[in-house]
Write a structure and sequence with these properties.
It is a single chain. This protein is an alpha+beta fold. Helices cover about 15% and strands about 45% of the residues. The chain is built from 3 helices and 8 strands. The chain has an 8-stranded antiparallel sheet. A hairpin with a 2-residue loop joins strand 3 and strand 4. The chain is globular, with a radius of gyration of 15 Å. The model has no long low-confidence stretch (mean pLDDT about 95).
Length: about 160
């Protein structure tokens, strides 16, 4: 079972998310986007983005509801004026504060990628009197927290939610 082991606030600059958006129709049989992530790694899609000098080294699974439709973006964050390479899309995200939760658990199944994780993170932020803006929220796959499992096989997923100012 997952647990939140750290919660803190960060200020994010204005930035451009470059990648690809996916929708509910793109989910796999488990309801996740893991097959889309597999496609990104098989097709070396991050290598193109890494050459553009991203703001951070992390891969991002960024989510929002846009006109009532759920969007799940796979990509990376860049300075606002960065042009998207051919075959990629972009969306600009304004500066703001995020509440970051380190969610500790197993990558197996959907333990770290569930509505329960989202709800627990929202609850944790509210304990600090930080109110979610309900605009963007994202999974930040940080190296080494997420990429190097501990002795028990668990990792730490950064689950970030934009906050109301």
């Amino acid at each position: 079972m997952f647990k939140i082991i750290r919660t803190y606030k960060e200020k994010m600059p204005p930035m451009r998310l470059i990648g690809q958006p996916y929708y509910d129709k793109d989910r796999d049989e488990l309801g996740s986007f893991s097959k889309k992530w597999d496609e990104w790694f098989i097709n070396n899609k991050f290598e193109v983005l890494e050459k553009l000098q991203p703001l951070f080294d992390d891969y991002i699974g960024c989510m929002r509801f846009n006109n009532g439709q759920f969007e799940y973006w796979i990509g990376m964050f860049f300075p606002s004026n960065t042009p998207a390479p051919e075959g990629y899309e972009y969306v600009d995200i304004g500066e703001g504060h995020i509440g970051t939760n380190w969610v500790y658990g197993s990558q197996e199944g959907n333990e770290l990628f569930s509505k329960e994780v989202h709800d627990a993170c929202v609850k944790k932020l509210k304990e600090f009197n930080w109110m979610p803006a309900y605009t963007w929220f994202f999974e930040r796959y940080n190296c080494p927290r997420f990429t190097h499992p501990d002795i028990d096989g668990n990792v730490i997923l950064d689950y970030c939610i934009y906050l109301k100012d």
